[in-house]
Amino acid sequence: xxxxxxxxxxxxxxxxxxxxxxxxxxxxxxxxxxxxxxxxxxxxxxxxxxxxxxxxxxxxxxxxxxxxxxxxxxxxxxxxxxxxxxxxxxxxxxxxxxxxxxxxxxxxxxxxxxxxxxxxxxxxxxxxxxxxxxxxxxxxxxxxxxxxxxxxxxxxxxxxxxxxxxxxxxxxxxxxxxxxxxxxxxxxxxxxxxxxxxxxxxxxxxxxxxxxxxxxxxxxxxxxxxxxxxxxxxxxxxxxxx
Length: 242
What we know:
By secondary structure, the chain is mainly beta. It has 1 helix and 12 strands, in the order αββββββββββββ. The strands form 2 sheets. Strands 1, 2, 5, 6, 7, 8, 9, 10 and 12 form a 9-stranded antiparallel beta sheet that branches. Strands 3-4-11 form a 3-stranded antiparallel beta sheet, with no helix packed on it.
């Protein structure tokens, strides 16, 4: 009887030891780092355009250019310009009183212009040429989006004078770059809805500019008094001089 008792005690001891072992924390590797599960990026739609070129430069009869092959049009060229502002005095005679007055007004300098040219590298054909500045026969839109609907190997040239311009060139990644690189683009947008905008002259805050005008026109009935004059100090960032 005593033997059966000790056999039962021995069996219960073994069961308790196994149960206790199951509650212990298993050994771990202190250098183990869990593998991160990559998060898939949303695919870029085939009809969206992405920025492939962006540059801000001050122009003083100089320019910059780059080459681009477009296989899947269109391409969009968006620019925003900050022209030089000047003060001019205009003589005005009232037809009712014959009284002559001098109006001091602020406007964009006639020497400020910016031009975008897209040429076919093989044939030299000018695919597009447009920009800012009445002296060049262009409108005075401060921001514009131009569209190139042809395919080909292009030279894209930006030049100007007395002006600072920020340019962005947008293309469709699909069909224009290797598919393996499509996901590298991070600045993308639908450009079809972009519209040109026009604004009146306003004071700017560019470094190196001495302003030559006041916010409001000044009417005087005597000989014009010249206000402080100044010049734009260019900060050339471009590749060549004109």
